[in-house]
């Protein structure tokens, strides 16, 4: 199953969900988007995720030079989390 999701790092602290969505909407229709926030300070941790409707949009976003507010972003395909493999077995 394809997630059609990218992982975006090196986000400026000022970037919110709407700014991230506006930037990446040039590559295709977005299903979901969020910036990860610190639980205590509610400030951006500098990374986020964008989920597209198509795999083609994901590849276009990854292969483009992405920059927000003069800061070059690092964009990779997001990997699925498999909790069963990463969780220690309890006996």
Descriptive overview:
The protein has 91 residues and is α+β, with helices and mostly antiparallel strands. The protein has a single domain (5-79), classed as RRM (RNA recognition motif) domain (Alpha-Beta Plaits). It has helices at 17-24, 55-63, 83-86, and strands at 5-9, 30-37, 44-52, 67-68, 71-72, 74-77. Strands 2-3-1-6 form a four-stranded antiparallel sheet, covered by helices on one side. A two-stranded antiparallel sheet has the order 4-5. The longest helix is centred in the middle third of the chain and has 9 residues, at 55-63. The mean pLDDT is 89. This is RRM domain-containing protein.
Summarize the structure.
By secondary structure, the chain is an alpha+beta fold. The chain has helices spanning 17-24, 55-63, 83-86, and strands at residues 5-9, 30-37, 44-52, 67-68, 71-72, 74-77.
* Biggest beta-sheet profile: 4 strands, antiparallel
Our measurement of the CA-to-CA distance between the termini, rounded to an integer number of angstroms, reads 31 Å
Query: Which spans have pLDDT < 50 for at least 5 consecutive residues?
Result: none
Q: Helix proportion of residues, in percent?
A: 10-25%
Q: Can you give the mean pLDDT?
A: 89
**CATH-defined superfamily:** RRM (RNA recognition motif) domain
The strand count comes to 6
Per CATH, the class reads Alpha Beta
Percentage of residues in DSSP E strands: 25-35%
CATH fold group:
Alpha-Beta Plaits
- What pattern of helices and strands is seen along the backbone? EHEEHEEEH
Count of distinct structural domains: 1
H/I helix tally: 3
Shape: globular
Strand order of the largest sheet: 2-3-1-6
| CATH architecture term | 2-Layer Sandwich
Which structural class should the secondary elements be placed in? Answer: alpha+beta
Radius of gyration: 14 Å
């Amino acid at each position: 199953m394809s997630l059609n999701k990218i992982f975006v790092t090196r986000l400026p602290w000022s970037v919110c969900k709407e700014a991230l969505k506006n930037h990446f909407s040039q590559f295709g229709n977005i299903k979901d988007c969020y910036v990860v926030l610190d639980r205590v300070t509610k400030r951006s941790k500098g990374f986020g995720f964008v989920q597209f409707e198509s795999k083609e949009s994901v590849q276009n976003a990854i292969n483009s030079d992405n920059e927000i507010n003069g800061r070059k972003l690092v964009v990779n395909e997001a990997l699925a989390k498999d909790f069963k493999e990463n969780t220690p077995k309890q006996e």
